[in-house]
Specification:
single chain, alpha/beta, five-stranded parallel sheet, five-stranded mixed sheet, 14 strands, about 40% helix, about 10% strand
Length: about 450
């Protein structure tokens, strides 16, 4: 009998250990530096969560950090420091917003522009809170792929926000070597702060998300803005709507909630958070902790997976196209950025002599090793073989004396948005703003895209 009991207990423990983890991230875009009441809202949110033993991520705007210091809000800073701190752009909605100043630029000059405009804000947040921001998220949907490399260099390892520009099956993914918690679809949810009758619906939406993820594990997120708890309109919409850029002396404060409305907002939010916290099998984490719950971004690639590039430039067996291409070239796993330009193949012949193709492979290896970026193309004598065609040709190479050139099928680009007007329809952008260039750059960087697998 005792032996049977031990076997039963071991089996139960094994079953529990095999249950895939479900993680929940709660974050706040801490941005309103016009309305002082937003400071008090951030303070109360942080304190209420601390009472519950919950750590959230507060993504702080650079100017918000400077204003907190000017107002001597040491109480707010101390309360937020008990949580995780991220970065949410330098000025948020003062024009030009990130997508405005990144549009029309390439990857390299766009990276330089992002660094020039954002470093002082990043440093202001780091200095005030005494910790390097763990993550970044763009203001509104003002997203651009040029931010990734700069953020990596600054030590921010996570891109956490929401938007439709890039995604991977409504779960976190690696893109530009950043862990993206982004575009989670129905796995992003929140309680309505104005309608108590909708709280049960929010709880049920959370429960449905948990049920969907029970078999596989995954991530759910909720985000708010502290200013929402004390105002009836967004501070930036009041001042910077559709390209407006008034001088600071002319800024207008947003309309405030009544005391009763503010209290209701807090109570609805806290009731939702309490529901999340008591849900079995759900672990609440911060952006800083998120990196450690996923497998490393670079891992050895099986060549049989890489060979699938011949048929489709896509994620295969969980590896990005860049991962697979490097494996075919005999390179060790490492981060590499996508190409800078879209090039058309000019090669006129289907057969490539072995020696010529080997030189092209060596050129690709040198480019990746020296610049940490995939080349736009390789040269076959005086003619170019575009990167997708080179990858497909390499993947199908049988080792014969002549290599048969193939056409690469860029399936991975289907995971990048196609409707710039919709995906950049933030009220702060000029009306009709549609930066197609940013989505094209994102397609070029899609070579680095792959799902983030839980450990």
């Amino acid at each position: 009998m005792r032996k049977l009991l031990i076997i039963f207990l071991l089996a139960t423990l094994g079953a529990q250990a095999a249950v895939p983890p479900i993680y929940y991230l709660l974050w706040f875009d801490t941005e309103d530096y016009i309305e002082p009441a937003a400071d008090d809202a951030a303070l109360r949110i942080a304190q209420e969560l601390t009472k519950r033993g919950i750590k959230a991520t507060f993504k702080v705007v650079g100017e918000k950090a400077r204003v907190l210091e000017q107002r001597n809000r040491t109480d707010v800073v101390a309360a937020l420091k008990l949580h995780d701190i991220g970065y949410h752009s330098n000025y948020h909605s003062i024009h030009p917003a990130p997508a405005e100043y990144l549009n029309g630029k390439g990857m390299i000059d766009g990276e330089q522009e992002f660094a020039m405009r954002e470093l002082s804000g990043f440093q202001a947040v780091e200095k005030l809170f005494g910790m390097r921001p763990s993550c970044y998220g763009q203001p509104g949907n003002s997203w651009g792929p040029q931010a990734n490399k700069v953020l990596r260099q600054w030590g921010a390892r996570v891109y956490m926000d929401d938007g439709g520009q890039v995604g991977y099956d409504q779960q976190p993914f690696w893109f530009g070597s950043m862990l993206y918690i982004f575009n989670l679809g129905p796995n992003t949810m929140r309680a309505n702060l104005d309608k108590p009758e909708l709280l049960p619906d929010a709880n049920r939406a959370f429960d449905r998300a948990v049920d969907r993820l029970r078999a596989t594990g995954g991530v759910i997120q909720t985000y708010y803005h502290p200013t929402e708890f004390v105002t009836t309109e967004f501070w930036d919409g009041v001042n910077f709507r559709h390209g407006a850029n008034p001088e600071r002396a002319d800024w207008k404060r947003p309309k405030l909630r009544t005391k009763e409305s503010t209290e209701q907002a807090f109570q609805l939010f806290l009731a939702f958070v309490d529901h999340v916290q008591k849900t079995p099998g759900v672990k609440i984490i911060t952006a800083r902790e998120a990196v450690d719950v996923f497998q490393p971004r670079e891992q050895p690639v099986a060549l049989d997976a890489a060979r699938k590039l011949a048929e489709s430039i896509e994620v295969h067996d969980g590896y990005s196209p860049a991962d697979q291409l490097q494996a075919l070239l005999g390179l060790p796993p490492r981060h590499v950025d996508g190409p800078l330009h879209r090039i058309s193949t000019t090669l006129k012949t289907q057969e490539i002599p072995r020696a010529v193709f080997d030189r092209a492979k060596a050129d690709a290896v040198r480019a990746i090793t020296q610049f940490g970026r995939l080349p736009d193309s390789v040269w076959i004598g005086s003619q170019e073989l575009a990167l997708p065609d080179f990858a497909a040709t390499l993947a199908a190479d049988t080792g014969a004396a002549n290599v048969l050139a193939r056409k690469g099928q860029l399936a991975i680009e289907s995971r990048i948005g196609t409707n710039a007007a919709k995906q950049y329809n933030w009220v702060i952008h000029p009306e009709g703003y549609a930066p197609e260039n940013l989505l094209e750059l994102a397609r070029l960087q899609a070579w680095t895209l792959k799902p983030a697998k839980l450990r």
